[in-house]
Amino acid sequence: MADLADLTVATAGERLATGEASAADLLDAVIRRASLTEAELHCYVTIDHDGARRAAEESDHRRSRSESRGPLDGIPLALKDNFCTRGLETTCSSQILSGYRPPYDSTVVARLRDGGAVIVGKTNLDEFAMGSSTENSAFGPTRNPWNPERVPGGSSGGSAAAVAAGSALAAFGSDTGGSIRQPAALCGVVGFKPTYGLVSRFGLVAFSSSFDQIGPLARSVADALTLFEAVAGHDPLDATSYPGTVPEARPSLETGVKDVRIGLVRELSGEGYEPAVTAATNDMVAQLEASGAIVSEVSLPSFAIALSAYYLIAPAEVSANLARFDGVRYGLRVTGETVEEMMARTRAEGFGPEATRRILLGTYALSAGYYDAFYGQAQRVRTKLINELANVFEQVDVLVSPASPTTAFELGAKTQDPLAMYLTDVCTIPANLAGTPAISIPVGLDADGLPIGFQVMGPALGEARLFQVAAEVERLATFDHRPEILAAAGDRL
Amino acid sequence: MPVEIDIAHVARLARLALSEEELSTYRSQLGVILEHAAKVQSVPTEGLEPTAHPLGLLNGFREDLVRPSLDRDEVLAAAPDSADGYFVVPPALEG
Amino acid sequence: MTDWEPVVGIEVHVELKTASKMFCGCAVSFGEDPNTNICPVCLGLPGALPVANAAALESIVRIGLALHCQIAPQSVFHRKNYFYADLPKNFQVSQFDSPVAINGWLDINLDGTSNRVGIERAHMEEDTGKSLHQGGGGRIHSATSTRLDFNRSGVPLVEIVSRPDLRSAAEARAYAQDLRALIAELDVSDARMEEGSIRFDANVSVRPVGAGELGTKVEIKNMNSFRSLERAVASEIERQIALLEGGSRVIQETRHWDEEAGSTRSMRTKEGSSDYRYFTEPDLLPLVFAADTVDRLHSDLPELPADRRSRFEGMGVAAGTARVLAMTDPELRRIFTEAVAAGSDPMTTAIWVTGELTAVLRKTPSSKVAGVGLAGLLAMVKEGKLSSSAAKEVLTEMVASGDEASVVAERLDLLLVSDTNAIEAAVTEVLAAQPHAVARYRSGEEKVIGFLVGLVMRSTGGKADPKLVNETLRRQLVG
Ligand SMILES: [Mg+2]
Ligand SMILES: [Zn+2]
User: Structural domain of residue C313, as residue ranges?
Assistant: First the structure.
């Protein structure tokens, strides 16, 4: 492998350690890759050339004095543009925050900076992380490196595509209903959503507070774990962050799956699932069984209703979380005669259609007379799903399913039909409702050469088991395909 | 089950100045989504408490300690309008 | 003609004086430059998250316990959604159907009668920022722009809601005063009405006497003293009765008290304010107070004004005076307690402490006066060594110098002459000089005695004990 931009974090770390490459070299490689791919893919909203350059130089300087700070020191990473970065534009791909520079760093960003990571820039997303295709960006869509006519998934589509394309070695995203795992699946990378509360949400621009969780997108399961470890752990600035110790998952990467009880989720198959996806899933389950896992099919009836509950609870939280964007203290202002008029105009112009739709949906679901039938009932359904999962995890150690019912679909295919777009999250949403960890690993390509993601779900704080199985899936899949765009780019290098 | 939506009222609650045309588009889209979402109503949930927090954690307080505030100039620099250390907005219509 | 019964309930917002704000580490302090105590959390910046202040929660539990409330085993924060420029997130973190404290009471005292007022709830919330309306004389309706200061945004607030148990404007005032005294006693707030650290809103309705149902209620706001609270409630009661007697209806609304006009006026309603779309605040966890924590806070409560009032009444202090004394400055109460311990009569002492001593100390703050000193002064009055008016003069000087009453009285030459011989002589002399008056007295014109007392007092330079003079005169006149 010639290009530093295609290394895993682990390999790049080795190169840095041996002196074969510097942080500046790694940064040069990803910037060069970006210069070749960005015009077509549009992974980034902002590339922070100066900041990244400075961070890489500092990292190299530290390394020359043997003061290196760990596995991410000098590694060029991308951040979804809904992480607050002090002084660096944070737009959430929304007109309403265009040009906004936060006066503070999110906890994750602070921890990454402390660890010496080089933040290349901020990646594109569906506006305020609402969407499954990264088409709902005020700054234009991101395209899938495997086929630029296709979407990268979303909402962390920019991060997923950047990792797939080599314009970052790894990235962070946020997962509210599948926004890390679904784009990871569609872009052929690993995407991990940790147990709710293991990674601080402080400074992540809130979409749906009780679902949002930050996690990595990477080229290997081990890289995903490395990124997770770098940012996980209690944060006194986030009351919902888990106060106990972070589960130790690294030792289980190598243990294999002998006698691990694996449940294949019946509800996440059948109608609406592409045959290639189903086949790849079943094939991987068979391989796991051959590796010694004890496989059974399990049923979680509430998974069938999870999407409905999600599309009431998440918009309700959105309607309040996005109320602060009003033109008063920051961001866009559209003038008006009165402050009320100013706010209403600013919000109408500043939010795109999907954000507007969800704000309206959530406002309705919470409003007098409808609360109990919609929001209240959705929260009780959430309880039911959590109880079902707890029962199932008495019988199996992990659950497996496709990460997405389809491979990457064409741009524009679902933009006119919001419900059809929502249905693409059907595999990923249950883990958000329950706050449980889940990971997507690429396991193959369909007939069109598009990646297929395999999902492993664990119980809350069950990260060790999750990574144990994910590592085995990765070994069995031997997914070493490369997007064609890179082959082409490679020729030009 | 068709869902009844006073979309203009909802938009007012959400402080969104939408045109008649936009309102009517959103009303029909919300109708479709809510019909799907209304499936939650068919799930028997007697005796179940609503879940607001997935992990069931409690309290999470902080000690009563003062931390440094933000630099006012940096904050006001991001504001659409400010004067003499204040944020400035058009006059309020409502008390 | 119908007799009307007013029904009043009071909502109180108390700003707590914690070091930091409710959900962030910004300082709670007043009168600073605008927007200097702000951070991502209290400014509602994207991505910021609240974390609840343990000290503020301890304060609300203490308030709840002092109001004899149940402390909920588990309570929850909610988001109350409405758009307002000085509300940074456009929702207020508050508590809806699961407040920290419920079902308590406060015994208030008005004109000597005690009255139990039910407390529905006390809940925790956060304050808003401040709007300054520019132009148009600071009035909302004619302002040309609004300036916003978020220093107050996120200051912890406890809202205390009474049941509609008050039946007059005077009762409303007494409730507000007694509640303020309780808050001051707990030392959880500056509790200053003028500065807005304690704010009272009143819900007022009227109904025909004997009616079971409540009338339509009107909420009145913007009262910044106890006096204006009483006036506002009285004026609103009058307005409602006039409406009903004129055959009109009362409209449910919020009205502003206009101090200058002396009346309430309708506020423009916030659009959609009737639908706050409360839901559980997902960024904050449910609150659970351990039973032993609650027990400890309960046993650590100071003596509360209402209990203290009963204690003073038990000592023989009249109800009205006991109420004033119970709510007065702790220093004055210490003097009272010491004086009584040194043998002074509690009622007399209470009158002096709440009256003259309070007045003197307000003029000349001093720490030089001790309870024993006051006891000494009161003993001199009782023993006839000092007249009441002279005693006031002595007290002023005692406060200034710290000297004992007897020393001061002597220095100011205010001691009464209680030398019987001297008074006998003075009386004899006066009677001899006034044969006409003596004759009138003896013919039954008793009031002449006053004239004669005056003459004796004058001849003794005002220092004779008037009681003794009176007795001596009567004896000699008879004899
Ligand atoms: Mg309130
Ligand atoms: Zn603050």
Answer: 303-411
